[in-house]
Amino acid sequence: MTHSTSARDVVEAIKDVDFPAGKDKLIEAASRSGAAPDVVKALRGIPAEQYANREEVARSVRVDPASDLGLSPAQRAEQAREGGRPGQSQHLREVPKPPVEEELDS
User: What is the pTM of this model?
Assistant: First the structure.
């Protein structure tokens, strides 16, 4: 059975990192924390740049689109239309809530 890395797994593996942090620092921290090999591999695949916080890392790492992000089909469609940073997984790009959800939340 193949283990699927989730955004939550990645964030948990780098919880002790002081930000901003670069790719090498993130990989090193995940390895030190005993993260699963899939998590370390996912971090190796992110663009080599400075990340301001865990959320930026989670949005940049490639994980299973069905992991634990809980995005609605409308949010996923918005991500596909809007694009994101180069190298960023489409399903992890930030998107606003659909107007119907915003209305229901207020």
Answer: 0.58
